[in-house]
Amino acid sequence: MRILVFFDLPTETANDRRNYRKFRKDLLKNGFFMMQESVYCRMVLNKTSEKTVVDNIFRMRPPQGLVQVLTVTEKQFANMRYITGEKQCDVIDTDERVVIL
């Protein structure tokens, strides 16, 4: 399964920008990668780990702005269509537990 996080956070004041940077860094620390501006993605193996990750996002949410979470299956994610641009392959994109580089 994939967890997609969409967010739109204010950046008008210094405190808003600090909250934005902190939220983004927390997402990266928790294994998310940026798909595009303000859209981050992470792979999870089951519903239990999905719940844990969503709970972590809830705890690190900024005080203002919009944060949305969507969970999709691997099949749904693989069926994503690229209208403009191309898929970037710089991220390991497998659900195998052992990856040999």
Task: Describe the structure in brief.
With about 100 residues, the chain is α+β, with helices and mostly antiparallel strands. The chain has three helices and four strands.
SSE layout and pairing:
Blueprint lengths: L1 E7 L5 H16 L3 E4 L2 E5 L3 H13 L6 E7 L1 H5 L23
Antiparallel strand pairs: 1-3, 1-4, 2-3
Please describe what this structure looks like.
This protein has a single domain (2-78), classed as 2-Layer Sandwich (Alpha-Beta Plaits), CATH 3.30.70.240. The chain contains three helices and four strands. The protein has helices at 14-29, 47-59, 74-78; strands spanning 2-8, 33-36, 39-43, 66-72. A hairpin with a 2-residue loop joins strand 2 (33-36) and strand 3 (39-43). The protein is globular and about 40 Å long. The two termini are 22 Å apart. The relative contact order is 0.24. The mean pLDDT is 88.
Query: Could you tell me how far the N terminus lies from the C terminus, measured between alpha carbons in angstroms?
Result: 22 Å
CATH class: Alpha Beta
| Helical fraction | 25-40%
Here the CATH topology equals Alpha-Beta Plaits
**What structural class results from the helix and strand content?**
alpha+beta
The gross shape turns out to be globular
Average pLDDT over all residues: 88
Question: What oligomeric assembly is this protein in?
Answer: single chain
Organism: Selenomonas ruminantium
Pfam families: CRISPR_Cas2 (PF09827)
EC number: 3.1.-.-
Keywords: Antiviral defense, Endonuclease, Hydrolase, Magnesium, Metal-binding, Nuclease
